[in-house]
Design goal:
This protein is of the alpha+beta class. The protein is built from five helices and four strands.
């Protein structure tokens, strides 16, 4: 019995035992840190995809806006309207109505462009386009979360990122958050 107490007080080998006992704790800690790093990288990817899509959607919306504006102004001029610009866009309500018309008419193209750029840049094929956010197009993209540990707990979990395109005066004609388009 005396030998048992003497053996417990002997310091030799205790460091090895502590190290062996701490290895699983260190391994779990490293996996948690790795999972946080993966989440951070996936958020960066979703953010990049959303930024790219917002730029592409803004460009497509600009193109369709100017085409539709030109077409409508020519129609009004052909009808003999003396000031077609004022007739079409003379009041804030007319400006908002015209922008809603353009977005509604070309929403399929806007969704298609957003989906293309989100998937091309590493995002999932679902997201939203929101008009107007401070006169900008905002695209929200997502990416499936793939953690290093506890995969079952995070099944069907997504990390979102959002991006806004450049400011445009004609997008400011829409109230904040007036239009939301979902793409799949």
């Amino acid at each position: 019995m005396f030998r048992i107490f003497h053996r417990l007080r002997d310091k030799r080998g205790n460091v090895t035992m502590l190290w062996v006992a701490a290895l699983p704790v260190f391994a779990i800690l490293m996996m948690v840190i790795g999972t946080v790093a993966v989440a951070w990288m996936q958020h960066a990817t979703a953010q990049t995809a959303a930024d790219a899509a917002s730029l592409a959607v803004t460009k497509k919306l600009d193109q369709r806006y100017y085409e539709e504006l030109d077409r409508r102004l020519q129609e009004l001029a052909a009808q003999g309207i003396w000031d077609p610009w004022n007739y079409l866009l003379g009041t804030p309500a007319k400006k908002e109505s015209f922008m809603r018309h353009v977005v509604n008419k070309y929403q399929g193209e806007l969704k298609s462009v957003a989906k293309e750029y989100v998937t091309k840049n590493g995002g999932d094929n679902e997201g939203t386009i929101r008009l107007s956010v401070s006169g900008r197009v905002e695209v929200t993209a997502r990416q499936e979360f793939k953690p290093m540990i506890f995969e079952e707990a995070f099944e069907d979990t997504y990390i979102k990122g959002s991006g806004t395109g450049p400011s445009r005066e004609h997008i400011k004609w829409l109230p904040e958050g007036a239009i939301t388009l979902h793409f799949k």
